[in-house]
Amino acid sequence: MLTVTAERSGARLTRARLSPRDVLRVGGAGLRTRPLRVFLSALGIAIGIAAMIGVVGISASSQEDLNRQLSALGTNLLTVSPGNDLFGEGSHLPSESESMIGQIGPVTSVTATGHTTAKVYRNDQIPEGQSGSIAVLAARLDLPKDVGATLVSGTWLNEATHRYPAVVLGSRAADRLGVVTAGTEQRVWLGGRWFTVVGVLAPVPLAPELDTAALVGWPVAEERLGFDGYPTTVYARAKEEHVVEVREVLGATANPEHPDEVDVSRPSDVLAAKQATDATLNALLLGLGGVALLVGGVGVANTMVISVLERRAEIGLRRSLGATRGQIRLQFLAESELLSALGGVGGVLLGIGVTFAYAASQGWPAIIPAWAMAGGLAATLVIGGLAGFYPAVRAARMPPTEALAAPSGGHSITEWRSATTLRAMVRATSVSPVTPSAAPIAPATPRMTTQRWGIRVGRRGGGVFSAGFRHAILIVGSFLRFTLGNGLRAAPVSTTAGRSFL
Length: 502
Fold this sequence. Notes:
Number of strands: 15
Number of helices: 15
Order of helices and strands: EEHHEHEEEHEEHEEEHEHEHHHHHHEEHH
Strand content: 15-25%
Helix content: 40-55%
């Protein structure tokens, strides 16, 4: 667009430019006229961004919860259990393996459990085969402290109860037996006799095998349940800085005669491996979110192409009144970017909400990395630029005369609801090219005030456009259609300003 400024040396032409504020207003005006289409197009972008942020946020929240658990429970717990011999048959640990492991210098505590052949039932009327896969284990008194177990009801075994028919149930074992709280009135049928439930454990992350077990005292297991006294799992705590060294010698220490028949593991490594498995699944879900974002970008591109086809009359009129190709291109690029940014902001908010809701349901701390939100918004801007590039170029390349002559897809010029969409049209009245047969543009009414590169149309009595401006549009459109229909060519304009409009 060109304007004329008077100087002492004579008249010269200067180019009117769009400020960032003007670009936002012009781009937003095209979106406000079709809110439902804009909402549906932005929804595709929002779903893709929400999926990506939700996956990243939930994964980060899960990782933070795991880190807190490991910090509370410790990563220095090692377990020793019997493996198989050369013939593939099960072996057992020596009865003195606990004391031998306790003699390792960096080891701070040792405890154990032993497997018995007894079965446990809710009462003595349950068929023998319906034991619920609950293991009956003999346990040492210091087991909860070493494995980080806590009780949700009742108490742990002590010096008095571990010699009598008393049992502590794991969390899942209690559910299967229908035991909610511990107490003297709660009894289970265990090993052919009644045992009183004195406690119920909470889930034990570092020793999940205890969740499906019924734990009794070591002495009562040997006396009444036929326990052979061999430990089946030894739990050892070592100093953090010596965990690796202790792990290397545990097998030979627990069973010096057959160190190859001993399995040594680190429960915290199992939790870390589970987290790595979850990370692989999260990567897959993140890829699906990217696909959804790509589909949303295609929807934005489709919306912008249709918008260009429907607004050919607007494009032609703006071009005929002096808007440059760059300004038309910038307008449609701004619309595409605003549409994508709208979906991106909605997607970020939706992803944050999903993350917080899921983390709260799991009891996790809600963590959303800042890079995920910034990356989501940046992705929407890139998608918006790519989706709007072709429609913007197509709109800028439209010849003004052909655009005005083409049907506008059922939408007339008077449907433009925002005055900022037409501000760029009227500035050209100061240097309007005059052809021999051109009808003059009607003067602006008092409700129109000329600004940097257009006008702002006032609203009075509920009207949007002044009568004079509507008449000017009709006159220009009628003239161009008449000249095109009769094959006439406008006379060349002698000024450079005039040529810029054709």
